[in-house]
Amino acid sequence: MRDVLETIVSDFFSFAIPPLVKRESVFPTLPGKATVVMGMRRTGKTYFCYQQIRGLLESGVDRSRILYLNFDDERLLDFTVRDFQLLLDVFYSRWPENKARLCYFFFDEIQMVDNWERFIRRLIDTENVQIALTGSSSKLLSGEIATSLRGRTLNCEIFPFSFREFLLASGVFVGIPKQPNSAESAKLRKAIGDYVEAGGFPETLGLNQTLRRDVLQSYVEAVLFKDIVERHKVSNVLALRHLFSAILNSPAQQFSVNKFFNTLKSKGVSCTKNALYEYMDHLCDAYFAHRLSIHADSERVRQVNPEKVYSNDSAFHSCFMPPNVGSRGSLLETLVFLHLRRQQHNLSYVRTRENQEIDFLDIAPATAKERLIQVCETLSAPDTAARELRGLTSPPKALSNAEKWIVTWDESRSLDGGVKVVPIWKFLLS
């Protein structure tokens, strides 16, 4: 193992950082804390680390003070928690002067190593290092972290490219115009259609639909088998696949595990209800799916009402859904959810006094400003406009002062009652 580690450390010292699209996510750092970067496979966690490394180099940090290890490297298949000390020995024996200097350690996909958190805690306590960890599991900040490491981490989530990042990565704009003229607005309208169809996974940009589908299918297989079946020792793969398909076929909809259990039963697929709840947890833990609860002060009310479920990228729906399943409106709602989730907003859906559903109650973390948001493709049909407005104009009394927005495909105007209508491309750049 020592020879392998010496080779990896040496390789990184001469490794050229590849071209990067600057991500909007903030990389938080504090002395005595490890930064944990989480997200679904292939969303760009490694390149986000490269972005931080490039920033360090540009600020004058010597390359010898930076260590990067990706535990998805097949050369590290036999690496165990005991080998971490060997890694330190290799690093500090090559650059002994680093013992007296602040160093920067990046450990990619660290969940591949059992009991990794014990070493990280010792490293924080005994060495002069700033640590970054990445993983494809949201439990890196909850169930998997031992008590000894809790309170010693800062979290950061990486999603597929936002619309702004997509525009820069695909070369539509070098810089995003703050007040686009008519020609720039036309480019943005075309680009949002491409974004809904292609999604934001970095590796799929520029691919035709067939290749993109193949790449996304490989991501799905990796999530299902590496992050769920192998990781959680799931034996009922058929039921898991049915659950995966059900989520894709009901984008931005309320999803009841109880009802789905009965659906499986009617199809002759055997699975316990508890197992289905666990599988849903696993899909969310792997960042394939996200859940949204109803807005309520009572925990019991939240528990008895179904959650809405969103996938991690619109491309999963455009690639894998049958042509007539879902609608552009549901894909727009997925984009709105992911945009607000990237910004770490507090989100829920709302049931009004007249039993109308409002897609989102959005609370900004910095200001606690409340905003009620409806999402629909168009307000051109009178009955659609009436339905969307009915929910916004009769919110629960406690939310009567919240801002009221409707996000559409390409409409922009103000309506009675202070309702603001904005196109999706403009909303995603806000």
How would you describe this structure in keywords?
6-stranded mixed sheet; 15 helices; 5-stranded parallel sheet; 430 residues; Rossmann fold; alpha/beta; Trna Endonuclease, Chain: A, domain 1; Arc Repressor Mutant, subunit A; 14 strands
Q: What can you tell me about this protein's structure?
A:
With 430 residues, the protein is α/β, with parallel strands linked by helices. The chain folds into three domains: 157 residues, P-loop containing nucleotide triphosphate hydrolases (Rossmann fold), CATH 3.40.50.300; 120 residues, Orthogonal Bundle (Arc Repressor Mutant, subunit A); 103 residues, Trna Endonuclease, Chain: A, domain 1. The chain is 41% helix and 17% strand. The chain contains 15 helices and 14 strands. The strands form three sheets. The chain has a six-stranded mixed β-sheet with strand order 9-10-11-12-14-13. A five-stranded parallel β-sheet has the order 2-3-4-1-5, sandwiched between helices. It has a three-stranded antiparallel β-sheet with strand order 6-8-7. Strand 2, helix 3 and strand 3 form a beta-alpha-beta unit. Helix 1 crosses helix 3. The N and C termini lie far apart (49 Å). The relative contact order is 0.09.
